Amino acid sequence: MKAKKILVFMLIVVLILITLFGMNSVTSMDNLAYVVAVGFDIKDTGKLELSFQIALPSGSEGGSSGSSSSQSSSSIVTSVECNSFESGVNLVNSYLSKELNLSHCKAVVFSEEIASQGIGEYLYTLINHVEIRPTCNVIISKCNAKYFLNNSSPMLEQLSSKYYEIASTSERVTGYTYNITLLDFFSDFADSFTECFATLGSVNDGGISSSGSNNNSSNSSSNGSNSDQSSSSLSSEGTDDSYVASETPIDSQKNIENLGLAVFKGDKLVGELNGVECIAHLILTNELENAVISVPSPFESTNYIDLYLTNSKCKSKVYLTNGTPYIKPSIDLSARIISMSDDYKDLTEENIELIEEYAKYYVERFIYDYLYKTAKVFKSDITAFGKYAVSNFATIDEWNKYNWLDNYQNSFFNVDINVDIVSRYLLIDT
Amino acid sequence: MNNNKIGFVESISLTLIVIISHILLNLPNEILGSTASSGPLNVIYITVLAVIIFLVFNKLFSSFQGKDILDVAEFVGGSILKKVVSIIYTLYFIFTCGILLLNFANTLKTIYLQDMPTSLICLVFILIALIANQFGFKNVSRTNAIILPFIVVAILIIFFALSVRFVPERFFPVLGYGVNNTFILGATNIFAFGQIILLFLLRSHHKEPKDTKKIGLTSIILSGLILFISVTSLILIFPFATGGEGILSIYMITRSIQFGTFFQRVDAFFILIWVLTFFSYLSVIFAFTLKITNKNLKTQNSNIPAFLIGLGVFIVTLIPQNIAQIRFAENVIYKYVCLIIVFGMSFAILLLGYLKKNKKGMVTIRS
Questions:
Q1: Cα separation of the two ends of chain A
Q2: Taking each helix axis from N to C terminus, what angle separates B69-111 and B267-297, rounded to the nearest 10 degrees?
Q3: B36: which chain A residues are within 8 Å (Cβ-Cβ)?
Q4: Do B173 and A399 lie within an 8 Å CB cutoff?
Q5: What residues contact A224, with CB distance under 8 A and at least 6 apart?
Q6: Is the pTM of this model over 0.80?
Q7: Of A97, A287, B68, B134, whose CB has the highest number of CB atoms within 10 Å?
Q8: Residue A46, by phi and psi: left (phi above 0), alpha (psi -120 to 50) or beta?
Q9: pLDDT, mean over chain B
């Protein structure tokens, strides 16, 4: 018995000694530089340009900036031209004399240019990287990614990382964009019944010079709506929800803005969606929490009625007729009237029905716009209708042979919408 | 001898820890790689098969109350067959244990211990299993029974924390790669229930021999349930799981778990649970291997055999040169070795034993 105790004691001692072998490789926080966001750009030479937004330790006043560095209040941006992601990280490690740590990276930003050329290889690198968390956001920047990171100075936050975390939650209130994590993006990329999409971002220079209405030109040309109501008064053009990132007429200091969605076909960027199209996307994917839309008033042609959309429910069915997808989304929307002119006294049952009709036609129109834009212009099923079509197939071979992602462009749609106006807040209840 | 008798819960825990260890590494991906979207259907199918096979085995065992499979081998072919079977089982355990340990050590190395040699990580685990086994089979099984509920709860949290990401339509196409891959070739996925071998070796350790059937059925059904949950969750969350691409899919799930903005990065907690799982798994397999060796050598001093088993496992961990070889050993060699030894050889021994016993009985009655 005593011999057994000695044996156990010796084994424990050996065990402790072995665990000490790793002590010489322990890295302390002083040796690390924490990256808050990574940017991917492509240079004219075809080389990759990586930008790292690195958090400054508290007490530091900015640190020395190299030729390719700039700084904001709580972080610096360092960029490097390189052949691959890992070699870029190594070059920056060498320049900073510290090890870049990506475990606190909150955003991965790709410029529109690099996204159009394809980002598949970077995606695999990022998703396989042990330090980069799958919950970090993917943003497609309309401008240079380095410029985007340089201008991401938190206005109402102390920490850059917190800023990225909080900024992405605005989707819950507005519905104008959608927060896509790296895992979401990679899953959609790898999936056989959907295409990937990402948050669209840019730098808003804070002036009101930029026009917000120039982005709808492609909408009207691609509109295949069978809605009866096609009058221009019900178009979303020129309304407050028709902007994309960088176009919002905000008068403030220059800062980044996330608005709209970037649409991919495979790993290549093929287009972008504005705020209202993003709302349509969220309605169809059952992801809409709340959103405000401005519907032209049925009582006065120059006025708008603001509707607060909640409780959006969509059930979609996909039928294959002679190999062509026939997609039938059924949408139920609850809406509250949140602003109106002083004619609220005329809010009779007939008038409410009229508003409901107008709202229905308006929503139906921008949903058709969205559907035909994704199908005919982008040829990209970011709504994931494929998941409803897949039940028509018994085996994966049959499904792959059908090739849903390529057949989606042949789809035709029949949207069934019901808008229920619930209440007008404080002044009157319906 | 009564010191080694274990109860209902301990027996089930011993078998569950084996399948859980496999699930945490690569088992669900291996099943999904061969069946794709019909993975859940395949798991139900192989669970039913495993139950049927267990019932057949149990029927064959019915003539050998309180005996384990080594006793049956001795009855069939004398001490020579017993020694051969014991050596085969010992090598089987050392091989599976070594490969799984190496895979887990590589996982740990990838995630946290980048600068530590894999062999050292393996050595730590082996030493802990050796220390645990100094306290005897019963204590190992009791400790395992205490740890197991925590592991099961952690697994359930892992899978259901991301239930909001489930896409039920990923069950389609319901037949995956086809009927053949789901039900005919897919039947080979029954290797997932390789821990059934422990039930054959545990028979002489049950406190209540009449509980043997109940223990077997409960452990197979629970194993099937855990496997079903893990396969289903993976397929509903990751579209790339069906391509067999996600080597560490379950770790990827844990990395995606966050409860609001307050509880993030809970993966470290799950890694801790995994480490405990592997400590427990290794201790259990060492205990069984030791039990077989002691029975074979008819020795009471278990120190030298224990060290030899540890050395054997360590040597196995040194053999594969890269991750491709580890994957091949785990997905191909282990699969077919398991099918041949657990389901083929054991069945042959039991069948021969059953026939011999019945023949003897007939002769006795006639005489």
A1: 85
A2: 150
A3: 396
A4: yes
A5: A368, A372, A376, A412
A6: yes
A7: B68
A8: left
A9: 85
pLDDT at residue A226, as a whole number: 37
Are A394 and B173 a contacting pair at CB < 8 A? Answer: yes
Give Cα B152 distance to the centre of its chain.
15
| pLDDT tens-digit series, residues A244-294 | 666 666 666 667 777 889 999 989 999 988 888 888 899 999 888 888 888
A7 closest CB neighbour out of B111, B258, B303: B303
- Picking from A387, A418, A405, the residue whose alpha carbon sits closest to that of residue A314 is A418
Name the token pair of B211.
């509980």
**Residue in B closest to A22 by C-alpha:** B116
Which pLDDT value is given to residue B312?
Answer: 93
Residue B50 has a pLDDT of 93
Q: Are B267 and B257 in contact (CB under 8 A)?
A: yes
Amino acid at A304: Y
**CATH number for the domain that contains residue B281:** 1.20.1740.10
Cα–Cα distance list, A189 to A266, A400, B36, B363 (Å): 6, 15, 17, 70
φ and ψ at B235, to 5 degrees?
-70, -30
**ipTM above 0.90 for this complex:** no
Q: Out of B128, B167, B177, whose CB is closest to A387?
A: B167
The domain containing residue B348 runs over which residues?
2-366
Interface test with B, best of A15, A27, A101 (most B CBs within 10 A): A15
Tell me the DSSP string of B26-77.
THHHHHHHHHGGGHHHHHHHHHHHHHHHHHHHHHHHTTSTT--HHHHHHHHH
Cα(B22)–Cα(B28) distance, integer angstroms: 8
CA–CA min distance A391, chain B (Å): 6
Cβ neighbours of B111 in A, within 8 Å: 130
- Integer Cα distance of A352 and A344 in angstroms: 10
- CB within 8 Å: B131 and A11: yes
pLDDT bracket for residue A233 (50, 70, 90):
very low
Name every chain A residue with its beta carbon within 8 A of the beta carbon of B120: 18, 21-22
Query: Tens digits of per-residue pLDDT, A310-340?
Result: 878 899 999 998 889 999 999 998 888 877 6
> For residue B157, is pLDDT > 60?
yes
Q: Residue B264 is encoded by which pair of tokens? A: 């993030």
State both tokens at A422: 């619930």
The Cα of B110 is separated from the nearest Cα of chain A by a number of Å equal to: 8
Confidence class for position A426, pLDDT limits 50, 70, 90: low
Q: Do the Cβ atoms of A132 and A102 come closer than 8 Å?
A: yes
CB contact under 8 A, B256 and A398: no
CB contact under 8 A, A394 and B264: no
Q: Which of A59, A43, A63, A62 is nearest to A51 (CA)?
A: A43
pLDDT at residue B42, rounded to an integer: 93
Instruction: Say if the Cβ atoms of A394 and B265 lie within 8 Å.
Output: no
Chain B: nearest CA to A149, how far in angstroms? 23
Dihedral-angle region of residue A132 (phi above 0 means left; psi in -120 to 50 means alpha; beta otherwise): beta
**Cβ–Cβ of B256/A183 closer than 8 Å?**
yes
Query: Quick check: A8 and B131 CB within 8 A?
Result: yes
Which residues neighbour A361 within 8 Å (Cβ) at sequence distance 6 or greater?
Answer: A227, A228, A229, A234
CB contact under 8 A, A187 and B172: no
CA distance B358 to B23: 40
pLDDT, one tens digit per residue, over B294-332 is 888 777 677 788 889 999 999 999 988 887 888 888 888
Number of domains within chain B: 1
A313: β partners: A332
Peptide bond into A329 cis (omega under 30): no
- CA–CA separation, B304 and B310 (whole Å): 10
Looking up tokens 């259901």 gives: B160
Mean pLDDT confidence for A412-426: 79
Q: Which residues pair with A204 in a beta bridge?
A: A255
Identify all chain A residues contacting B110, using CB atoms and an 8 Å cutoff: 130
